[in-house]
Amino acid sequence: MLRKLFGARAGDIAIDLGTANTLVYVKGEGIVLNEPSVVAIVDNGDKKQVLAVGEEANRMIGRTPGNIRAIRPMRTGVIGDFEVAQFMIKHFIRKAYPKRSFANPRVIVSVPSGATQVERRAIQEAAEAAGARRVSLLEEPMAAAIGAGLPVNEPTGSMIVDIGGGTTGVAVISLGGIVTALTLRIAGYRLDEVIAAYIRRAHNVAIGEATSERIKIEVGSAIRPENGAGRTAEIKGFDLFRGVPRAFPVSEEEIAECLAEPIGAIVDTVKQALEQTAPELSADISDKGIVLTGGGALLGHLDLLLRYATGLPVTVAEDPLTCGAIGAGQVLEELEQHGDILQE
Amino acid sequence: MELKRRAEIPGYHAPGRERLAEMARFLESLPHGKLTFAQWYGHGRGCAVGLAARDPWFMAQGLGLEAPDSLKDCRPVFGGRCDWSAVTAFFAISEAEAKALFTRNGYDGEVTPDPSRVAAKIRRHLSLAGTPALTA
């Protein structure tokens, strides 16, 4: 009875706090919120005021007047701006669960495997300050593996490559624990940055974050197309030479070439993780292959490139964008089964 | 007494041809994996101009980088000009010549050619001076 009154009433929450997007899973309901991890701030001299959070703030990126900044408080998967991150977490918790705003929920937050103790503490404190009664941390690759349906509790090795906005996590999981974990601070945003830098240099055109992300989605590829230039995407930007807006096409081949270096770093990290894996687990992985999750998993032909590079079967999870949140939510739903993998 | 090359004299402003020759020398001394035509400069890698803009000799000649810590905003600057305009002014070459020497178009679409290949192309360009402009 008491549990019904105080425990369940609080409405436990799992948060996939990503550099790009934050997803909130509410126990018994599923994913109830999926919004960009962006906060718009009005800077009035020494006083900062939050103007918008999430989707609304995201629409302001690159379109704000001088005194308004649309910022991402998460940098490479960890808190870059504590104060703003705290406000964002609080906002998302309240938005996801408005009816129970008076109650304090238990919160599970996923963190990159490579996050330092200081970074983990910062995330924990931000969630506590946002009103959580108890905060547990969950390694991101573990959450993604559970969300992708991998048999994490069985005595068999599973390899997950989780390519988010700020970090790429590569992990080998067996018996409910992470056996090998490597974190690379190169992921979706670096790819966007590389595209913007390439367009600026090769075409003398400045483009915004949204445009470079669109190019990545439309013609981004991990390997050069076989038929010459491949697909093309029409882009609009600011011509730095003439000082006017300009529209022009970019090819898949160009983008594949400019992405080769960061993609190569991801492939190298996967190979490094395989080298560090015990022979028995390697044998399991060579049978079952590698599973890709996170938004980066949707980059064209990345699975094919990893297959060439490792010689292993590679599959993309069914819904790679929500795997982390679904996995964290599943831990929340089945605490008795998965409780051991949480860090308090 | 040790004789210095003109290029080594402090305050000496070299003409574009000499800057190109120095660029060829600079590229031949470049460690493997530094050169990429995908960006001006960022995370320790860059194109020939971006890397040269962090070299003391080229810096003394007035070549610099704006926003060197931002991969997407980083660009070369020279004499109040920026981007390709800075490159053409610094080396006293046309934009077509600059793009033939310093973009993937001049190297069969390769974004990361061997620096010695770029150095060889610069030397060839210098030896062809006075002939019709080199293009991609």
Question: How would you portray this structure in words?
Answer:
The complex is a heterodimer of chains A (344) and B (136). With 344 residues, chain A is of the alpha+beta class. Chain A has twelve helices and 18 strands. The longest helix of chain A is centred in the last third of the chain and has 24 residues. The radius of gyration of chain A is 21 Å and the shape is flat. Chain A starts with a helix and ends in a 6-residue tail after the last helix. The relative contact order of chain A is 0.14. Chain B has 136 residues and is mainly α. Chain B contains six helices and five strands, in the order αββααβββααα. In chain B, the strands form two sheets. In chain B, strands 3-4-5 form a three-stranded antiparallel beta sheet, covered by helices on one side. In chain B, strands 1-2 form a two-stranded antiparallel sheet. The longest helix of chain B is centred in the first third of the chain and has 13 residues. The chains are: A alpha+beta (344), B mainly alpha (136). At the A-B interface, helix 6 and helix 8 of A face helix 4 of B.
Main sheet of chain B? 3 strands, antiparallel
Structural class of chain B: mainly alpha
Q: Return Rg of chain A in Å.
A: 21 Å
How far apart the termini of chain A lie comes to 26 Å
Quaternary state, please? Answer: heterodimer
Order the strands across the largest sheet of chain A as they lie in space.
3-2-1-9-10
Number of helices of chain A: 12
Q: How far is the first residue's CA from the last residue's CA of chain B?
A: 45 Å
Helix fraction of chain B, binned, reads 25-40%
What is the makeup of the main sheet of chain A?
5 strands, mixed
Total number of β-strand segments of chain A?
18
Shape of chain A: flat
> What percentage of residues of chain A falls in helices of 4 or more residues?
25-40%
Query: What is the count of β-strands of chain B?
Result: 5
Largest interface: chains, residues each? A-B, 17 and 23 residues
Look at the structure and give the mean pLDDT of chain A.
87
Rg of chain B: 14 Å
Sequence stretches where pLDDT stays below 50 over 5 or more residues of chain A: 1-10
Shape label of chain B: globular
Order of helices and strands of chain B: HEEHHEEEHHH
